[in-house]
User: Fold this.
Amino acid sequence: MDTDQHDRLFDAVNTAITYLLQTEVDQFENALLRSMGVLAQAVDADRVRLWRNHRVDGKLYCTQFYEWSQGVEPSQGKEITIEVPYDEDLPGWETKLTKNECINNIVREMPANERFVSQGILSLLIVPVFLRGDFWGFVGFNDCHRERLFTAHEESILRSASLLITNALLRNEMTQELTDALKKASAASEAKSRFLSNMSHEIRTPINAIVGMTMIGKSASDIEKKDYAFEKIEIASAHLLGIINDVLDMSKIEANKFDLSNVEFYFEKMLQKVVNVIDFRINEKSQKFSVNLDPKIPHRLIGDDQRLAQVMTNLLSNAVKFTPDQGSVSLRLYLIGEENGLCSIKIEVADTGIGISAEQQTRLFTSFEQAENSISRAYGGTGLGLAISKSIVELMDGEIWVDSELGKGSTFTFTVQLERAPGESRPYLPAVNLKNIRALVVDDESETREYFTQLTQRMDIVCDTAADGREALELIARDGQYDICFVDWKMPVMDGIELSREMRASGTNEPVIIMISAYDWNAIELAARAAGVNGFLSKPFFSSDVVDCINTHLGAKIISNTDSLDSGPAVSFDGFRILLAEDVEINREIVLSLLEPTQIEIDCAVDGAEAVRLFSATPERYDMIFMDIQMPVMDGLEATRQIRALDIARAMEIPIVAMTANVFREDVEQCIAAGMNDHIGKPLDYNEMIAKLERYLQS
Assistant:
């Protein structure tokens, strides 16, 4: 090799490396191709190609990533440059290249040369590239115009140049990955900063209401104003508790400690509680709310009913929030399949609200983000609800998605897998012989009439329907009196109150009249009672609501397998005594006040040590213990362990129930491990307290 050619090669390498080192990340690909071109021209090659290796099931493949060509047809991205197996298409190459030896040949003299001949290649130089001791890939130099062997000097310099190019490529990829990671981290940090700012506002708002209304209530001179202040404090407290629960749930999700607690539950009862929570907000905005419950969904299921209700409540709350006054919100639930007792249930929440753009939808289920910053300012909210809902749904082996357009409302849909409960039966056992009942339903909404028709057919009740008051009076005049009439309040032509008045005046065989409405009963009760209405049924209603209503108003005892706490006389625990271990005075006062109507006797201990002392002194005095966990002197866990370790029979028998704000799954497990029987979370739920007392005192 003459001196001029030697210098040209070194100049080419220096120029190529300069291009690569002085180029910004976004221009690197152009610089890489220019560098490959400079090297090709220096050795009079027509094509330079950069290949990268990868293995699949132990088999080595190579794929072309970059190509520079001049005067010949490019091959980038064609079948011959993608997923090329060494052992089949490049025989002998893997063995030679892994020894860090170059392949420098005239194609005509090579075995199995068809793939190279088809590309017009006459001569080639293949330079292996090793990174960190591994065979990373190779750089190929093609001559498509003459047969020749590349010189040893060319081979040596191109080997070094190929290694430098590959290192520059990897460095650029790492820089790009680092840049992308920094952008994501910056975006996440910005999102969390916005979230914290928004959260500060969300928390301070109800706290301000609580503090302000407390001052107003304390200074109020009349009961009505005090009651008003208490009502606002209750609403603000519930809102604050919801925010705190969202934050705690999100913390558990990010720590991978978010689990489900599966229990057997009545699906319809769970649904009723969801509707009761959302009903007030719907009435406030005068929105139309409908529920379509597939009768094929089993009445009793096994799953985490509280988390399922949380998802539905969140979606319904959002639907109500983002739907204007007089708009519509609907909840539709379907059984879409069942296999080996595992039920696939689809739940849809649709609204006629503001809608969500396609771009906003991409961020909906992301933690710490809302669809748009302006939404949080205009409507409030933490932006955590949908991310939490997605986690819950996925834990239930389901998925969640949204269909929406700006200005055209939204439909959120999710699926869950729930197990059919063993021995599944109907949720109610009517105490009235339903075949002897004639019912009339009067409502201008066809959906309500259709719902009653389908329900009464399943219950063997004879039921007629009318779209307005005049049609109802004509049916009564023609077919005689009915045993029970369900009458809508707001109807055209004649409203429900006027119709009730006419029905009472039409004959002596008076039917039971039940007013049905989505509006607050308190607003119409006086006028309805004066018109002869016997009772009220709130929309949307469920089959058990209708059956309970029939049984109640036709003078029969309700026979039900459902939760006995929803109705009935106050529970009495007269003759029982419990020990309450609680260090916070206001918490003791709350328990004493809530349980006062039950006539149960309560002794109080201000820490765990006192609880152990009181029980040790008179173990037969107590029927049950409510035990706080975090207390001074001795905590509830240690107090429980010491009580269980006492050398008296009663110490092992007495029910001990944790009553604590420690509500994570691991907290409950700690309580059980310490010897407790059960757990109640704070803030206290009155019905849950009564349920625990009934379970352990009346069993």
DSSP finds 23 helices and 25 strands in the chain.
